[in-house]
Amino acid sequence: METVRGLHHVTAISGPAQENVDFYAGVLGMRLVKKSVNQDDPGTYHLFYADAEGHPGTDLTFFPWPQMAPSRAGYGLSTEVSLAVPPGSLVFWSGRLQKFGVRLHGAEVRFGEHALGFDDPHGLRLALVESGSSLGRPFTSWLGSPVPAEHQIRGLEGARMSERNLGLTSQFLENAMGFQHLGTEGEWHRYGAAGGSSGRYVDLREMPSAPRGAWGTGSIHHLAWRVDEEAHQNAVRASVETAGAHPTPVIDRFWFKSVYFKEPGGVLFELATDDPGFAVDEDPKHLGEALVLPPWLEAERAAIEAALPEVVMPGSD
Ligand code: ZN
User: pTM score, two decimals?
Assistant: First the structure.
C-alpha cells in the first residue's frame, strides 16, 4: 500500500493580495516564506505562509484573484483547513482574533481536541486546533512574528471535504492513498494518513442533496499531500491511476515536484515532494522578501512586476 505522509500544503483563493498578507502575516503571525506568481497565470501572485523555515506540512498558500465571485458552497470542495496550535493556546488566540475584528464561529471539541473556527477576510473557513502532537513536529518559530513563539501556529492539522458520495471518496483514500478510517463524530468521518506527522487528518461529510460547489474567493483550491521523493511520488501516482484517477505528469514547481488529480468526488489533490524546499533559491534569512520567479519566467520579470499590485509587510502591533 502506498501511503501519503499527511498534508504538504493547502492552496486557497483569496481576495486582494494586501489584505491576504495583512491577515496571514499580520494577524495569524505566519511567515511569508515565498512571494512568487501562479506558474499558469503569472499575472497573479502565489503567496506562501509557513513557519520560519517553510517546513513541509506548515504551508498555506494563496492565489489572490479578487475579481472572482465568492466561493459557492456545495459538494466536491474542500471546505475548511485547520491549523495546529500548542495545547492551551486558544485563550490567547480567541482574544487576538477578536481584537482584530475576526468573526469567530465559537469553540468546539473535535475528536477530543479543542478547536476554534473562524473565517479569513475573504470567506475562507479556518480552524485553530489545540493539537497534542503539534509540539513534536519539525517547527521553527518566526522571530519576526507579532505572535509570541509559544502560541505560534505549528503547521497544518487537517482539512474538511464535502462530498456527494461518501463511499467513493473514502474507498479512494483508503485503497489508493493509504488513509485509515479513524472515527465518526456527528456528520464528520475522520480519515488519517498512517505515516504522517503533520496534517494527518481529512474529515469527510456527505451532502447528497447539496448542489455542486464552485471555486471562488474563499475557496480551497487544492490539498497537497506529502511524498518523500520522486520514487514515492511515482508509486502513489501509479496507485491513484489504478484506482481510476487521471494524474498529470510530474510538474517541476521548483521548490517541490507536483502531480495533480481529482479524487472521485471532485476535490483537486496534489502529491508534492518534501525536497528541495523554499531555501533552494533564496537566503533562508530573507525568504519572501523579493519576488521570486521560476527560471523560465525570469525573461518576463519586468512585465510581470509591472502587472502585480504592490504588497507591503504589515508592521508589528
Ligand atoms: Zn499546490
Answer: 0.96
